[in-house]
Amino acid sequence: MDAKTLLRNRRSVRKYTDDVVPKEVLDDVFELTVRAPSWKNCQIARYTIIQDKDIIDKIADQGVNDFVYNTKNLKYAHNLCVLSYVKGISGKNNDEYATSKKDWEVFDAGIAAHQFCLSLQANNLGSVILGIIDPAYIAELIDLPKEEAVAALIIFGYPNDEVSYTSRLPIEEIVRYKQ
Ligand SMILES: Cc1cc2nc3c(=O)[nH]c(=O)nc-3n(C[C@H](O)[C@H](O)[C@H](O)COP(=O)(O)O)c2cc1C
C-alpha cells in the first residue's frame, strides 16, 4: 500500500472479527509505531495490549462513563490498547531550550496514537480511538505504573464492517496562506 492510499483510506473502524491479533503481527506494527516523533525524542508513550476478554468487558461496563456507544463497541472487541504516557517529562524541562508552552505530553500521546493507528492499517488492521473514557478506573484495573497517565483507548483488529468515510470541511475553510 503506498503512502497516499494509506492516508486517503484511513478511517475509524468499530466492528471487527473475533480474531485476536497475533504477537508476530503486533511486533511489526510496533516496529513502525515507535518511529513516531516526540518532544526531544523523549518517547513517553506506552502501549498496554489487552486481549483478555474479561478485562475488555470490565472496561466496557465501567470504564467509558456510561457512554453506551463505546460500551457496545468494546463488547465486540477482542483487541484493545490502553495508550498511556509517562508524566512530567515531555515539555517540562527548564533547560536553555525550554518553552512557556508546557502541554506537550498529550500532544506526544496524540501523535503516538495516530502512528499506531496508521501502523495497524499498514498491516491491514483497523482501529478506533476512544476518548470518552474513565482514565482513573482503567489505570487501576490494569495496574498502570503510577508514573503514567491514561491518554486514550484504541480498539483494533480485523475489520468486519461496511467501508464508509466521514465528511471533511472544505480545504479552503481550514487552510490559510500568507504569501
Ligand atoms: C481524541 C479522539 C477521541 C475520540 N473518541 C471517540 C469515542 O469515544 N468513541 C468513538 O466511537 N469514536 C471516537 N473517536 C473517533 C472519531 O469519532 C472519528 O475519528 C471522527 O468521527 C472522524 O471519523 P473517521 O476517523 O472515520 O475519519 C475519537 C477520535 C479522536 C481523535
Descriptive report:
With 179 residues, the protein is α+β, with helices and mostly antiparallel strands. The chain has one domain: 3-Layer(aba) Sandwich (NADH Oxidase). 37% of the residues lie in helices and 16% in strands. A four-stranded antiparallel sheet has the order 1-2-4-3, sandwiched between helices. The model has no long low-confidence stretch (mean pLDDT 96). Bound molecules: flavin mononucleotide. The site of flavin mononucleotide has 10 residues, from α4 and β3.
Number of helices: 7
Strand order of the largest sheet: 1-2-4-3
CATH homology-level superfamily: NADH Oxidase
Biggest β-sheet: count, sense, barrel? 4 strands, antiparallel
Termini separation comes to 35 Å
> Spans with pLDDT under 50 lasting ≥5 residues?
none
By CATH, the topology is NADH Oxidase
CATH architecture grouping: 3-Layer(aba) Sandwich
Question: Strands, helices and their partners?
Answer:
Elements (H helix, E strand, L loop, with lengths): L2 H7 L13 H11 L11 E6 L2 H10 L5 H8 L4 E7 L17 H19 L3 E5 L4 H7 L6 E10 L13 H4 L5
The protein binds flavin mononucleotide (FMN).
Which descriptors apply to this entry?
single chain, 179 residues, alpha+beta, NADH Oxidase, 4 strands, 37% helix, globular, binds flavin mononucleotide
Q: TL;DR?
A:
By secondary structure, the chain is α+β, with helices and mostly antiparallel strands.
